[in-house]
């Protein structure tokens, strides 16, 4: 049966060091151990509303309706297998998938497999499309990991790592994890304030996108700089968080209050807490910097 044009979160989770288990335990015992481990992973997937598409040696390929479920399952797998000193590396992508005869096809599938190969032991790596669709409490666990070319793309895109390690040894629960995060200024905030050269623009979650750029015919916030595109970036509210999306030639640089720097170009990323955005250059002149606060 074929199911086309459906957005799915695809996860590949690969057991690290399985070859060494065959040397250490012997073929029969290692095979049984890996089978038990894959069963544990599959049970966690099912509890998070996922479906195991197939098992490929010591790796599982899974489909979820939402990236939240994929990330929660990946974190829980990491926490559970850590107890028996087994590590996995995980790649998650989100986008159009074709499900046909109990298999999945498309760039989204290929990208998740590619990210799993890039990840190191205990790492969960997600595409930018997956990141911007995450709930705020999960998005705040993510940090930029690398810039790569994904299949079918001629431009580099940022991929992100889910920093779940701090919850090692705890039972995953959204309330528990959320209690460790400072969400007073996070994606759940009621409004986004953008201040440039002393003038503040306020964006509420039901407002239309607010556009920044060089051309007043396109932009509500105008920045007269040759490195700024006519329609450089836009700010809007999407799925529980405020997002900045870059449309420019030179990209945008985001400097957050915790000293993290993120570069985006023709892609989107959620905003948290507060920081400064420079359009088209690493550091804009002070009177052209966009100060954001949620």
UniProtKB/TrEMBL annotation:
<protein>
    <submittedName>
        <fullName>Adenylyl cyclase class-3/4/guanylyl cyclase</fullName>
    </submittedName>
</protein>
<dbReference type="InterPro" id="IPR008984">
    <property type="entry name" value="SMAD_FHA_dom_sf"/>
</dbReference>
<dbReference type="Pfam" id="PF00498">
    <property type="entry name" value="FHA"/>
</dbReference>
<dbReference type="InterPro" id="IPR001054">
    <property type="entry name" value="A/G_cyclase"/>
</dbReference>
<dbReference type="Pfam" id="PF00211">
    <property type="entry name" value="Guanylate_cyc"/>
</dbReference>
<dbReference type="InterPro" id="IPR050697">
    <property type="entry name" value="Adenylyl/Guanylyl_Cyclase_3/4"/>
</dbReference>
<dbReference type="GO" id="GO:0035556">
    <property type="term" value="P:intracellular signal transduction"/>
</dbReference>
<feature type="domain" description="Guanylate cyclase">
    <location>
        <begin position="9"/>
        <end position="116"/>
    </location>
</feature>
<dbReference type="InterPro" id="IPR029787">
    <property type="entry name" value="Nucleotide_cyclase"/>
</dbReference>
<dbReference type="GO" id="GO:0004016">
    <property type="term" value="F:adenylate cyclase activity"/>
</dbReference>
<dbReference type="InterPro" id="IPR000253">
    <property type="entry name" value="FHA_dom"/>
</dbReference>
<feature type="domain" description="FHA">
    <location>
        <begin position="210"/>
        <end position="259"/>
    </location>
</feature>
<dbReference type="GO" id="GO:0006171">
    <property type="term" value="P:cAMP biosynthetic process"/>
</dbReference>
């Amino acid at each position: 049966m074929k199911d086309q044009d459906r957005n799915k979160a695809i996860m590949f989770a690969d057991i690290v060091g399985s070859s060494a288990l065959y040397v250490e335990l012997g073929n029969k015992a290692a095979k049984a151990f890996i089978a038990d481990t894959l069963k544990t992973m599959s049970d966690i997937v099912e509890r998070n509303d996922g479906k195991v598409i197939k098992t490929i040696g010591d790796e599982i390929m899974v489909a979820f309706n939402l990236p939240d479920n994929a990330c929660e399952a990946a974190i829980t797998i990491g926490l559970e297998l850590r107890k028996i000193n087994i590590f996995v590396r995980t790649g998650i992508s989100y986008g159009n998938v074709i499900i046909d005869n109990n298999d999945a096809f498309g760039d989204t599938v290929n990208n998740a497999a590619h990210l799993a190969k890039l990840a190191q032991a205990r790492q969960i790596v997600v595409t930018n499309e997956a990141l911007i669709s995450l709930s705020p409490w999960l998005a705040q666990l993510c940090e930029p990991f690398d810039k790569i070319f994904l299949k079918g793309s001629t431009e580099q895109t940022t991929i992100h790592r889910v920093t779940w390690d701090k919850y090692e040894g705890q039972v995953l629960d959204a309330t528990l994890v959320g209690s460790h995060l400072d969400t007073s200024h996070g994606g759940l905030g009621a409004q986004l304030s953008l201040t440039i050269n002393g003038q503040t623009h306020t964006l509420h979650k039901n407002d239309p996108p607010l556009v920044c750029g060089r051309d007043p015919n396109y932009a509500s916030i105008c920045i007269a700089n040759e490195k700024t595109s006519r329609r450089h970036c836009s700010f809007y509210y999407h799925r529980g968080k405020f997002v900045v999306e870059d449309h420019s030639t030179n990209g945008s640089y985001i400097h957050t209050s915790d000293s993290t720097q993120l570069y985006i170009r023709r892609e989107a990323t959620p905003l948290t807490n507060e920081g400064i955005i420079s359009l088209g250059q690493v550091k804009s002149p002070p009177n052209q910097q966009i100060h954001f606060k949620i």
